[in-house]
Amino acid sequence: MKLKFNRWTEEEFMKVREEVLKQWPTGAEVDLDEAVAYHKALPDHKNFAKKLIDAKEKGITLAQPRAGVALIDEHIELLNFLDEKGGADLLPSTIDSYTRQNKYEECERGIIESRRAGRSLLNGFPGVNHGIEGCRKVVESVNLPLQLRHGTPDARLLSEIMIASGFTSNEGGGVSYNIPYAKSVSLERTLLDWQYVDRLIGWYEEQGVSINREPFGPLTGTLVPPSMSNVVQILECLLAAEQGVKNITLGYGQCGNLVQDVAAIKSLREQAEEYCAELGYENMMITTVFHQWMGGFPEDEAKAFGVISNASVTAALSGATKVIVKTPHEALGIPTKEANAEGIKATKMVLNLLEGQNISDSEELNAEVDLIKKEVKAIMDKVAELGNGDLAVGTVKAIEQGVIDIPFAPSMYNAGKMLPARDNQGKIRYLEVGNVPFSQKIVDFNKSALEERAEFEEREVGFQLTVDDIFAVSKGKLIGRPE
Amino acid sequence: MEKNGKKVVIGVIGSDCHAVGNKIIDHVLAKQGFDVVNIGVLSPQEDFINAAVETNADAIIVSSLYGHGELDCQGMREKCQEAGLKDITLYVGGNIVVGKQTWEDVEKRFESMGFDRVYAPGTPIEITAKDLKKDLSIAE
């Protein structure tokens, strides 16, 4: 099938679907009509899309952890612990990394060895292997809406099984679950595979079952300039809307400068709505998610709580609809359920204290919003031009040519010519633009902001700034100043 | 920069796509004079071993950030021996198990799998570089 921006026909979808469901035996359990009836029988308080609409109307920020283990009973115990002891508003099922690579045989080995060892050897919940029966046991044993969170380039079967099981939100996208999560999967492939997932969710929407979709905002989580991640979010929003998705949460990973972070969420929300209106998508429900610091964390747990609390302040003041919570074990890998609950509690305390407050407009904030929007527009215009008006084809070409360029990405299809670094206030700027199509004025502005920092630190503008910035937060500072 | 004449294979094992640390390790080891063969992320054991055989490497450094290290590293030393990489220097580091566990237990578990050195989360690559120079008899 050739990649086009257009909505898939019923025939195209059903033809591919037949093959998808054969990829693992549990695929045969999926029956769409039965799944619609199952969803309609679920109470409203278990529907992710509805809970987000409610939060947006109330102007509050919801807290959601990441969590997932290999075995069903342990997974349920973990999720209920995060609800009852942590106070989570929304629940996840984070999927293990073998499933993300479609290696279901290795998942079986992980499940068996986890049973034998009495602890999870997988870093998440292997949803495909557990099938509808196992996933529904989870849905029926918890009291909050559930989202599947992963990092899967080809999530077609996983999405079929978990949505049919009663999960009402799905994270990912053709760019955001490829460039940061794969080494050699082509963009055409992942964009098609995510059009399938979006079409599936569009189909449920047409049957009266609203499923939330969330493109993955932070990308590599490493000094991604806000305009670059916002472009990816807006494109994935439009790609999903074209397939009939209505309830979309756009993501952004904390950069660390309060003003830049608030400006990023504000411009993301506004520009996404503008582009949706421009392309004629009606009745869209756009919400936002703020990811607490995605880079390296300090090992010291008290310091980690500092990072978590700081991020919660920004999440609240930015007006994001939800925040994805980190834990005091972040520097060490997968957290215990106790540490995970503590991260949620710290976050919720800060959110509660700031409820109803926001950051008022200032010259600095307005200038940052204006800059982000101009940078986004320059890239979006070029994407449309490269695709001759087709945004799917344009996205592939834009990544191929480095017009969209994600720093520190594992994918061989990413140019990797753009380099970011922090300016003297900690805002992330473009150190090298590579082939990102900015006007000379924007290039010069980014450069002068970095020159100001380098002069302050009495050193040259260069890659060493970037390297120092990558490790700065784990060492206790936002900006990687020379020691 | 001056070359020290030793070749080291680096990469991120299994279904792990954490790329940032891998790029930094490459940058620092090259700066310290090592000839770095970087096989990148999402690399099975066979890719490490094939790269080491093909380039006649002196050491292999396995990174794992996502918790499956324990499953991914099983049998690696035996496969090295079979491939003719007799007693090649073999290190592993990162967040190599799921969850916060007693470090001494984790270290023992990986040493018994045949790893010469096992690095705890957050170890700077500069420390590994120093150990590598010692183990490969390179003068500082």
E-strand count of chain A = 10
Please, what is the CATH homologous superfamily of the largest domain in chain A?
Methylmalonyl-CoA mutase
Total number of beta strands of chain B: 5
Alpha-carbon Rg of chain B, integer: 14 Å
> Rg of chain A from C-alpha positions?
21 Å
Structural class of chain B: alpha/beta
Q: How big a fraction of the residues of chain A is strand?
A: 5-15%
| Average pLDDT over all residues of chain A | 97
User: Which band does the percent of strand residues of chain B land in?
Assistant: 15-25%
Segments of chain A where pLDDT lies below 50 for 5+ residues? none
Percent helix range of chain A: 40-55%
Instruction: Identify the biggest protein-protein contact and residues per side.
Output: A-B, 37 and 26 residues
Distance between the termini of chain A: 55 Å
Mean pLDDT of chain B: 94
Low-pLDDT parts of chain B are none
Strand order of the largest sheet of chain A: 1-8-7-6-5-4-3-2
Report on the biggest sheet of chain B.
5 strands, parallel
Named CATH topology of the largest domain in chain A = TIM Barrel
Structural description of this entry:
The complex is a heterodimer of chains A (483) and B (140). Chain A is an alpha/beta fold and 483 residues long. Chain A folds into two domains: 10-353, Alpha-Beta Barrel (TIM Barrel), CATH 3.20.20.240; 418-483, Glutamate mutase, C-terminal domain, CATH 3.90.970.10. Chain A is 51% helix and 9% strand. Chain A contains 17 helices and ten strands. An eight-stranded parallel beta sheet of chain A has the order 1-8-7-6-5-4-3-2. In chain A, strands 9-10 form a two-stranded antiparallel ribbon. In chain A, α4 (72-84) packs across α7 (127-141). Chain A is globular. The termini of chain A are far apart. In chain A, 57% of the residues are buried. With 140 residues, chain B is α/β, with parallel strands linked by helices. Helices cover 40% and strands 18% of the residues of chain B. Chain B contains six helices and five strands, in the order βαβαβααβαβα. Chain B has helices at residues 20-31, 45-55, 69-73, 76-82, 103-112, 125-135, and strands spanning 7-12, 35-38, 59-64, 89-94, 117-119. The model of chain B has no long low-confidence stretch (mean pLDDT 94). The chains are: A alpha/beta (483), B alpha/beta (140). Chains A and B meet through α5, α6 and α17 of A and α1 of B.
